[in-house]
Design a protein that fits this description.
The protein has a seven-stranded mixed sheet. The two termini are about 30 Å apart. By secondary structure, it is of the alpha/beta class. It has a single domain, classed as Rossmann fold (3-Layer(aba) Sandwich).
Length: about 230
C-alpha cells in the first residue's frame, strides 16, 4: 500500500471512529457503497464469488446435524436464497433495518424469517449454527470481541465465519473499514477450526487466494473481554 493510500485509510479510520455501526452500514446499503451490480452486500455476495460456498454449505449443515441456522449478517439475501440448507428454521439477521424490512417482505415465509439483530450490541438468538460471513473483517477488534461474547451467550452450537489463514498479523481498524483476519492468531486465538470451507477464488474481483469459512464449536471460543 502506497503512502497516499495509507494516509487515505487513516483519514477514513478517523472519520468512522465512534460512529454508530447501524448508521455506517445503513449508509453503505442505501448508497450501494461497494458498487456491485447484483448485490448491495458487495462483490463478495454476487453469484460468481459465492459459487464455492453455495456448493459446500448444504453438506456442511447436514454433517453438523443442524436444524436451525442464523445468517448474521444476512445482507440482501441475494445468494443465500438459492441455497437449500435443509433446516427447519432459517433466520436472516442484520443491523440494517430497511434491508431487513425488504427481505421479510420479499422472502419471508414459514421456516424463513428476517429480523433486525445487532451482532455487536446483542442479544443474538439461539440457533444450532451462527453463520457470520464477510462481517468480522469490517469490525474493530473491540466489536469482534463483543460479537463473540453475544454469540457465546446465545447458546449456539457452531460458529461458521470468515478467516484468512495466510494473514500473518491482525491489525485493528474502525468498524466500517476492512482488513483480512486470521482468527487463529492473536488477539483472537480461536485455535484450529474443526473444518475449513475453501472460498478462495483469486481470479475474481472481490475474492482472495486465502478466503475460508472456519467452523468452530461456540463453547470452545475464547473469552475476548480484554479487547472490549
Amino acid at each position: 500500500m502506497g503512502l497516499f493510500s495509507t494516509l487515505k485509510e487513516q483519514i477514513r479510520k478517523w472519520k468512522l471512529r465512534g460512529r454508530n455501526p447501524s448508521d455506517v452500514f445503513t449508509t453503505y446499503y442505501e448508497s450501494n457503497k461497494w458498487g456491485d451490480a447484483d448485490s448491495r452486500s458487495g462483490k463478495g455476495s454476487n453469484m460468481p464469488n459465492t459459487e464455492m460456498i453455495r456448493a459446500a454449505l448444504p453438506g456442511v449443515v447436514r454433517d453438523l446435524g443442524a436444524q436451525s441456522f442464523l445468517d448474521l449478517p444476512c445482507g440482501d439475501y441475494f445468494w443465500m436464497k438459492t441455497v437449500d440448507l435443509g433446516v427447519a428454521q432459517y433466520t436472516g439477521g442484520d443491523i440494517v433495518a430497511p434491508m431487513i424490512a425488504q427481505n421479510q417482505k420479499a422472502h419471508g415465509r414459514e421456516g424463513v424469517r428476517f429480523e433486525v439483530i445487532d451482532l455487536i450490541q446483542g442479544p443474538v438468538p439461539g440457533h444450532d449454527i451462527v453463520f457470520v460471513r464477510d462481517c468480522l473483517v469490517h469490525l474493530s477488534n473491540a466489536h469482534i470481541a463483543a460479537a463473540i461474547r453475544n454469540i457465546k451467550a446465545s447458546g449456539a452450537t457452531w460458529l461458521i465465519t470468515t478467516t484468512n489463514p495466510e494473514t500473518q498479523e491482525n491489525v485493528d481498524i474502525s468498524t466500517g473499514q476492512w482488513r483480512a483476519l486470521n482468527l487463529m492468531l492473536p488477539p483472537f486465538s480461536f485455535g484450529q477450526a474443526e473444518r475449513m470451507i475453501d472460498e478462495s477464488m483469486p481470479d475474481l474481483k472481490g475474492s482472495r487466494k486465502d478466503k475460508f469459512m472456519g467452523v468452530w464449536r461456540v463453547s470452545e471460543l475464547p473469552d475476548l473481554s480484554a479487547l472490549e
